[in-house]
Design a protein that fits this description.
The complex is a heterodimer of chains A (322) and B (264). Chain A has two domains: 4-182, HUPs (Rossmann fold, 3-Layer(aba) Sandwich), CATH 3.40.50.620; 204-321, Rossmann fold (3-Layer(aba) Sandwich), CATH 3.40.50. Chain A is built from eight helices and 18 strands. Chain A has helices spanning 17-33, 48-52, 72-86, 97-110, 217-228, 236-240, 271-277, 306-321, and strands at 4-7, 10-11, 14-15, 37-43, 61-66, 90-93, 113-118, 120-124, 127-134, 139-145, 150-154, 169-172, 184-191, 204-208, 231-234, 261-265, 282-287, 300-303. In chain A, a hairpin with a 2-residue loop joins strand 8 and strand 9. In chain A, helix 3 (72-86) crosses helix 4. In chain B, a hairpin with a 2-residue loop joins strand 10 (155-162) and strand 11 (165-171). Chain B has a single domain, classed as HUPs (Rossmann fold). Classes of the chains: A alpha/beta (322), B alpha/beta (264).
């Protein structure tokens, strides 16, 4: 059979939303192919209750593997074992960092074709075809698999979560990990850096990127956000640089938001950022580089120096609001 | 010990990228440059070498690509690599991620590195995954998008941001590590280093030299085959304001926001 195996990432007793989307998508595709969607969970002491939750998103079977959490290579071993033992045809991942690492490692292990940043999957001649935007999302290419197994790595938020009300059987799968898969060890996972801020409930977000120049650049954004009655968000680059809190980060390994207004200052608009904010109702971008990708998907773009524009905008907004 | 840094030649950021409609592949003609992300990997290698916590004898830049890719190697050497390896063969052209990772792993095998470093993504292919493919072939532990490396306990203590915050991972050597651009500020090459780069050893290898199986590489053997390029659903272009008079610009922004009832 050409069944589909979906990796489900979990942390602290809950599944990742993108993984639940991937399981839902796997179930939809399996139904169309006339096959089954199975899911796999790798972790320490994963409960029946947690594992079986995936049935509600359309998985008919869940492989539970006892192994290290938060690292890709043990999952590569586990998925390769599950695929070989059950003759599965596809491996599917939601968006995120681990999915990329696991999917790529699995492709190498199984000599399989791999496609990443997939935004849609369709069935053609009883096979899955992955659609992937390329060249800054200016074109969409179709990827056909010419290998026994096809690896599909979704883009963040590409797959919609659908509850099917179904149930799954949980099967314990014992995996012998490769020596190299155990040579990386998690020392600390999920450290929160910077203050805990809530950006997900804000109607207005003022977001800053590398174009701010330094951490102090955020002071002007905080003033503007204050005037607008919103909160401040950040890109991964500036969070990694220690300029702002991780809890305020938008994108691939951060938050996904859809406020009424998203004002991006000094943000180029890389795909990893775009996927976390493109559903915003109104997008305003200020950037000095007229070629910045963010202007391709902003509703209002201002080409100019944010250091000149942001303080004046703050004053003007205050004056207007009285 | 030996550090190999994987580098890649990419179209210059200012060049508009497009698909060659007759081949279905990315048109890689035009101005080229060393992938900016790779300069961070070279800098990370240099900092490990200069830091002294590891005894690094040699930093070797490795690339796969056509004749022109030599320039990326020369640039890598000007940034500090001691020598370079150029895997080049018509049979490799058009390889997909799977084939490219396999071929690079074969080239690396001959070098037997203690550490393989690379940039977290290429500027053109947008795929972030070569490191994980290479690591599986070499049977080495691997981590991608690393933003801090410390030598500790004979291995590397790495930090990176993942789905739930920052992870700290202890990785034993030999290993494959891809680095993010927050890891360092790459140095500029000195004039002397630029002049001397072409004199450093550069070894060119064919697919056969590297022991690459012909059936696993090249366009015809790609396991994932790209085709049918289509335009995405059109999004109406946004309004653009060039800031000439900032007072005027700000007035326009406020009016725009007010029109959409965002200043209520």
């Amino acid at each position: 059979m050409s069944g589909i195996l979906v990796y489900a990432l979990h942390y602290d007793g809950a599944f990742n939303k993108n993984s639940l989307g991937a399981v839902s998508e796997g179930a939809r595709l399996a139904a169309e192919l006339g096959t089954e969607c199975h899911a796999i969970v790798v972790g320490e002491g994963v409960s029946d209750e947690l594992a079986s939750q995936l049935g509600n998103y359309g998985a008919s079977k869940v492989y539970r593997v006892e192994g290290p959490e938060g690292l890709a290579q043990p999952v590569v071993d586990a998925m390769a074992a599950a695929i070989e033992a059950n003759d599965l045809g596809y491996a599917l991942f939601g968006g995120g960092l681990l999915g990329f690492e696991i999917g790529a490692g699995l492709a190498a292990r199984l000599d399989a074709g791999v496609c990443m940043e997939v935004t849609n999957v369709r069935v053609e001649d009883a096979k899955l075809v992955a659609e992937r935007p390329i060249l800054g999302d200016s074109q969409i290419s179709s990827v056909h698999y010419r290998s026994q197994v096809g690896v599909i790595i979704g883009r963040l938020n590409a797959f919609e979560i659908r509850e099917s009300g179904g149930t799954a059987t949980v099967e314990d799968l014992s995996v012998e990990f490769k020596p190299h898969s155990l040579r990386a060890k998690m020392v600390q996972r999920g450290e929160q850096r910077g203050a805990d801020v809530n950006i997900e409930d804000a109607n207005i977000l003022v977001a800053g990127g590398r174009g701010l120049g330094n951490a102090e650049g955020f002071e002007a954004l905080e003033a503007l956000a204050g005037a607008l009655g919103g909160a401040v968000a950040a890109t991964r680059a500036v969070v990694d640089a220690g300029w702002y809190s991780y809890s305020a980060q938008i994108g691939q390994t951060g938050k996904t938001v859809a406020p009424k207004l998203y004002l991006a200052a000094g943000i180029s608009g890389a795909i990893q950022h775009k996927v976390g904010m493109q559903a915003s109702e109104n997008i305003v971008a200020i950037n000095k580089d007229s070629n910045a990708p963010i202007f391709e998907f902003s509703d209002l773009g201002i080409v100019g120096d944010l250091n000149k524009i942001v303080p004046k905008l703050t004053e003007a907004v205050k004056a207007k609001k009285g | 010990m030996k550090i190999c840094v994987l580098v890649k030649e990419v179209p210059d950021a200012a060049v508009e990228k497009r698909i060659n409609s007759s081949t279905g592949r990315l048109d890689r003609s035009g101005e080229k440059n060393l992938n900016p992300f790779d300069t961070h990997a070279i800098e990370a290698a240099m900092q490990l070498k200069e830091g002294g916590a590891l005894e690094v004898d040699e930093v070797v830049a490795v690339t796969m690509g056509p004749e022109s890719a030599k320039r990326a190697l020369t640039k890598a050497v000007s940034l500090g690599a001691d020598r370079s390896v150029h895997l080049s063969d018509d049979a490799l052209a058009g390889s997909d991620v799977n084939g490219t990772g396999y071929a690079l792993a074969k080239a690396l095998e001959a070098e037997a590195p203690d550490l393989v470093l690379l940039g977290q993504q290429s500027d053109d292919g947008e795929c972030y995954t070569i490191g994980a493919v290479v690591a599986d072939h070499l049977a080495m532990p691997s981590l991608t998008q690393v933003i801090k490396i410390d030598v500790e306990g004979g291995g590397l203590r790495c930090e990176r941001q993942a789905e739930y915050g920052y992870d700290t991972v202890q990785v034993e050597l030999p290993a494959v590590i891809s680095v993010g651009d927050a890891i360092n500020e790459p140095r500029y090459p000195s004039l002397k280093a630029i002049m001397g780069a072409k004199k450093k050893p550069l070894e060119t290898k064919s697919a056969a030299d590297a022991g690459i199986e012909a059936g696993r590489v090249g366009y015809d053997n790609a396991r994932a085959h790209c085709s049918e390029f289509a335009a995405p659903p059109a999004k109406s272009a946004g309004q653009i304001i060039e800031d000439e008079d900032t007072n005027d610009t700000v007035e326009k922004i406020v009016a725009w926001l007010d029109e959409r009832k965002l200043l209520a």
